[in-house]
Structures are given as C-alpha cells and as structure tokens.
Write a structure and sequence with these properties.
Elements: E1 2-8, E2 13-18, H1 21-29, E3 43-45, H2 63-76, H3 80-92, H4 96-101, H5 107-127, E4 129-130, H6 135-143, E5 152-153, H7 158-166, H8 178-181
Parallel strand pairs: 4-5
Antiparallel strand pairs: 1-2, 1-3
Helix pairs in contact: 3-5
Length: 185
C-alpha cells in the first residue's frame, strides 16, 4: 500500500492510498484522482517522508503517552465549531475557496478549515432537497409562499443568484465536492 500526500491546483492538500506507484499513475492519467474539496483533477504529489521501521532505534511510546499527546494536540488545535464558524463566515463573503488556499495559513489551520468545509458540505447534502437547475424558480416559490418552506439546494447561474439576492431572497453559493454527490465504492 502506498500512501501519498497530494495537492490540487487550488492548493488543497489531501492524502491518497494506492496499491502501487503504477496504480497511482494509471488512475491519475484517467482523471480518477480528484480533490475531495473541489473535484479538481489537476493533482500533483507533494514531497513526503516515508516511515521506515528500522528496529529498536526509538522506543515506541506507551498508550498513555500517546493519549496525553493527543489530548494536548486537541487542546491546541482549533475546535471543530470554531473552524466551522470560520468556514461559514468566509463562505458568506464568497471567499470560501480563497480562504482555504491562503499559502500563509499554518498547515494545521488549513487542514482544519478543509475538514470543517467538508463537514458543512456533508450537512448541506444530508439536510437539503436537491432541486437541480430549477433552484431559482423554486427559491422564489418558497420565498413568496407559493411552495412549502424547506431547505433546498441546486444550480443557478451567477445572474440568477444576483437576481435572487436583489429580490431579498437569501442564497449562498456553495460548491459541493463531487465526492459527496455520489456514493463511495
């Protein structure tokens, strides 16, 4: 099993597991390797250090030491709710993708933001009805009381989105990663 650190052209980092280097190259050539954040298929391998088990050079830590280290990391890492709020705020300002790409963010913050963004996207997928390309008309029907109020998602052009906003209809452009739109194999 080969575990690779990968990055898309939008600077989202993620991990991929492959049977071999040939398996990775084959999937990459067929555009089967995509960013879980944005669905981008322009993927590059990042430099990563392999882990070699060379014997007893370093004594393994005990279970209690690992638990204490995990607790310390949990106390210093941004909380899930804080990261979710940060993603929600940047999404409202239309900069959700740009915020996750900022090269000056510490890697742990960027990773927490990506994880929070995926959680938000999963929540949206689980708690909304997909109305497809009729999003603008369905949003208007709900807003004007012509249809039952419910949470919907779908596709709208930038012009349709601006028209909805000008009518006072709250909408949030939010790209959903392709990986969440289909079942995992």
């Amino acid at each position: 099993m080969k575990v690779l650190d990968l990055q898309c052209s939008q600077q989202h980092s993620f991990e991929g597991w492959f049977g071999s280097e040939e398996d990775f190259q084959s999937q990459l050539a067929r555009n089967l390797v995509q960013c879980p954040m944005c669905g981008n298929a322009e993927i590059t391998k990042k430099l990563s250090a392999p882990r070699f088990n060379l014997g007893k050079a370093i004594a393994p830590t005990s279970t209690s030491e690992r638990a204490a280290a995990s607790k310390d990391e949990a106390n210093t890492a941004p909380s899930s709710s804080t990261a979710t709020e940060l993603v929600a705020q940047t999404a409202k300002s239309g900069q959700n993708q740009q915020a996750a790409q900022q090269p000056n963010l510490p890697p742990e913050v960027a990773q927490a933001m990506q994880a929070a963004w995926l959680e938000v996207a999963k929540h949206v997928m689980a708690n909304t009805e997909d109305v497809g390309s009729s999003f603008a008309s369905e949003a208007r029907k709900i807003h004007y009381g012509e249809a039952d109020e419910r949470a919907i998602r779908g596709h709208a052009t930038p012009d349709q989105t601006m028209e909805l906003l000008e009518e006072g209809i709250d909408v949030l452009p939010m790209p959903i990663p392709e990986s969440l739109k289909r079942p995992l194999n």
